[in-house]
Design goal:
It is a single chain. By secondary structure, this protein is α+β, with helices and mostly antiparallel strands. Helices cover about 55% and strands about 10% of the residues. The protein has a 4-stranded antiparallel β-sheet, with no helix packed on it. A hairpin with a 2-residue loop joins strand 1 (about 105-120) and strand 2 (about 125-145). Helix 2 (about 65-75) crosses helix 4, helix 4 runs antiparallel to helix 9 and helix 8 (about 355-420) packs antiparallel against helix 9 (about 425-460). The radius of gyration is 38 Å and the shape is elongated.
Length: about 500
């Protein structure tokens, strides 16, 4: 049997011989990107104080165990969180894929076929058919000369950190939305209760007016007016019940239930203490997961810009292959039949029609965009906290003034009802007094609900934790080795 020859070859292909200095000039200088924003003061402008350390158990101030249970239920069943969790898993897979580029890749192949040969001797045609079999093994490995692959791995790690921070931000958002939806449901039911009480009061006026009419103490106009006011209050009940049903269905959707408007609520809104400012503007940037995500995206974009720059430098790839092709299956794995090649290639990009330059410029521009997005996110975070702090003061004043207005409106309604009974005022005066009481009570409910919702928004703006015992995902942000470096402000 004829012995096969094992071939070992090494080929170095370079478009041009260049020094390391010319390589840097060819690829351009590295560009560094940092998370920068407006300089943060040490205290909140709305209160003029730096604030106490932030508290995780922010739901406890509402003294509402049902609210806590609903938040837990929402965090367990939320499709939004399921979607975010899937994106985190995808980012982890992309990070693994990026790391795999530093390892050799090996592929195997197998083939089988038929070769037909025609022989013609002395006018006689003879055709022979032979089977052909082959196997092959190919391997390749790129040496990361300039850390181009390493930059891609770092960018994938930063993307993972960003996706984890996005998950934590979504978790906080779901918790806050659920708490606010519970507040809104209680407000809607409280407003419905006010409408029912108004209906009952106006029904009493109608009864009283009809009796006075029968005794000749009131005319038909008073009766018609009383009945019209009663019908109007009945329409208000229907409108309030519609809003209550919508609020219930929204809450049920958030917690993962079928929206059947069957959830029960006491129609009570907690009276809150004066807000205590927490943290300070500088610390805020180390707490909010959306800021962490923005910082990670700056890191990822910067590394991709560096990767695009390094792509303009020479790359070294080692390849190896081994295979055989025979007509006998028994010879398929015979070492003497196998031929092998080993090739090392050094390739320097010379002319790509501007493609690599364009990719580098695009990556740099995307990194600059990420820096600008970070600055915008920081400003939005500060604005949200300052708005919540300022709003709490005004809403507290509004709640106090509205409570006093309601007390006076109730006393005025009682006085008007007595005076109407005695015939000293008209029915229009009584209905006007009832309307003022209705409006005052409705506005007080709205003020308390707005203040409660603002308190939730305040803790959401602070990037507060999840005090519900379901396992806050704030810790999930920190589960990668490079995250501490990526979030240098923490």
């Amino acid at each position: 049997m004829k012995r096969s020859v094992l071939l070992l070859g090494t080929a170095f292909v370079a478009a041009c011989a260049s020094s390391s200095g010319s390589h840097g000039q060819r690829a351009g200088q590295p560009v560094e990107f940092f998370a920068v924003s407006v300089e943060a003061p040490q205290e909140w402008a709305a209160r003029g104080v730096a604030g106490v350390p932030t508290s995780a158990d922010w739901l406890s101030q509402f003294h509402d165990a049902v609210m806590v249970d609903l938040v837990n239920e929402a965090l367990t069943n939320s499709p939004t969180l399921e979607s975010r969790a899937a994106l985190v898993r995808a980012s982890k897979a992309f990070a693994r894929a990026a790391r795999s580029q530093r390892r050799p890749s090996v592929s195997a192949s197998a083939s089988a076929g038929v070769t037909s040969t025609s022989n013609n001797f002395g006018g006689n045609s003879d055709r022979s058919t032979d089977g052909t079999y082959g196997i092959g093994l190919d391997a390749s490995w790129e040496v990361d000369l300039w850390n181009r692959i390493g930059s891609g791995i770092g960018a994938a790690d930063a993307d993972l950190v960003a996706s984890q921070a996005d998950y934590a931000a979504a978790e906080l958002s779901v918790a806050a939305q659920t708490a606010i939806a519970w507040i809104n449901l209680n407000e809607a039911l409280a407003q419905e209760r006010v409408a029912v009480l108004t209906f009952e009061a106006r029904d009493r006026v109608r009864t009283l007016t009809e009796r006075r009419f029968q005794r000749g103490l009131a005319d038909a106009l008073d009766v018609r007016t009383a009945r019209s006011a009663l019908a109007g209050s009945e329409a208000t009940i229907a409108a309030r019940r519609q809003l209550s049903g919508e609020a219930a269905r929204r809450l049920e959707t958030l917690v993962g239930r079928y929206p059947s408007a069957e959830i029960q609520a006491p129609a009570e809104i907690a009276s809150l203490e004066v807000i205590t400012p927490e943290g300070n503007p500088a610390l805020l940037l180390s707490r909010r997961p959306d800021i962490a995500a923005a910082e990670a995206r700056i890191t990822a974009a910067g590394l991709r810009a560096e990767q695009a720059r390094l792509a303009m430098l020479p790359s070294l790839r080692l390849t190896a292959s081994a295979g055989t092709n025979t007509t006998e299956i028994s010879d398929l794995f015979d070492p003497e039949q196998i031929a092998a090649n080993l090739i090392a290639g050094l390739v320097q990009p010379l002319f790509t029609g501007g493609n690599l330059d364009a990719q580098r410029d695009a990556a740099v521009a995307q990194a600059e965009s990420a820096v600008a997005n970070y600055a915008a996110a920081a400003l939005d975070a500060w604005r949200e906290v300052e708005n919540a702090l300022a709003a709490d003061i005004l809403l507290a004043n509004q709640e106090d003034a509205q409570a006093r207005a309601l007390e006076e409106a109730r006393l005025a309604e009682e006085l008007a009802e007595r005076q109407y009974t005695s015939g000293t005022i008209t029915i229009f005066n009584l209905i006007d007094a009832q309307t003022r009481r209705l409006n005052a009570e409705s506005l007080l409910v709205s003020a308390r609900a707005s203040r409660a919702a603002n308190r939730v928004a305040y803790h959401l703006a602070l990037g507060g934790g999840l005090p519900t015992g379901t396992g806050s995902s704030q810790s999930v942000i920190m589960d990668t080795p490079k995250n501490a470096a990526l979030r240098g402000r923490s």
